[in-house]
Amino acid sequence: MANGQNAPKKLKAGEEATTESGVKIRMISPGKGKPIEKGDKIRVHYTGTLVDDRKFDSSRDKDQPFEFVVGMKQVIQGWDDAFVTLKGGDKALLTIPPDLGYGDTPMPKIPAGSWLVFDVEVLEVIKDFAPKQFDTKGHETSTSASGLSYTILEQGTGIKADKGKTVEVHYTGFLENGDIFDSSVLRGQPISFRLGAGMVIPGWDEGIAYLNAGGKALLSIPYELAYGEAGRPPVIPPKARLIFNVELVTVK
Fold it and tell me: Which 3 state secondary structure label does DSSP give 88?
């Protein structure tokens, strides 16, 4: 149950459940807030320890709650798996196996192969925070000779994105099933690259060049113009068509 959707959402105090991926969840104190779903932004307090009770991190010590968007791979897999079983106000203890934590990679205060224990409290749930695919209704979709499909939502009124120009782009990338695999919007930092220099996938070099600064488009990129037959496992499957919201922020 990699997405945790089949785990119990109404554990009582003291009850335990284990996700199919292997995260053990023990409810300390159930809350009364909204159930957490993939794409929600949440604020949590946490204290992380090893199984011998040695503390390695704590938002409580810093008096700074931690925020992330669930299911967007912004945190370890064990967190993404566990939090979709919780709701606002829940206090729980999460026990995460190494393969859903940091695996064989040592981290500060965390030896390689460590099980991780987190005492967590869900402070806030902000629903449907993750970006949605641009609505293309009422806009013409074109397909180029290369096979790239693109829908220009706003042409932009700034400098044309010509080959050799340096561009800044905000984007969100979707698989065909709607899952987000990457997003500069969620990171709050656009990507910068020189157009036509092979610094990005071919579908981007072609698609961004249809816009002016300030423009927005939806690109549907066949695998031949993306990551090819191999894809980029485990995030991007073989022969994957990729869908991108793109916003051309600047052209220099």
Answer: coil
Gyration radius of the chain's alpha carbons: 21
CA 136, distance to chain mean position in Å, is 23
| Residues of the domain holding 29 | 16-126
User: Which amino acid type is present at position 69?
Assistant: V
Same domain, 93 and 180: no
Q: Is 181 a catalytic residue?
A: no
Q: For residue 118, indicate whether it is catalytic.
A: yes
Structure tokens at 241: 């068509």
Looking at the 3D structure of the chain, how many domains does it have?
A: 2
Residues 114 and 185 in one domain: no
The total number of residues shown for the chain amounts to: 252
Predicted TM-score of the model (pTM): 0.73
- For 20-61, the pLDDT digits (tens) are 999 999 999 999 999 999 889 999 999 999 999 999 999 999
Q: Which of 68, 83, 102, 174 is catalytic?
A: 102
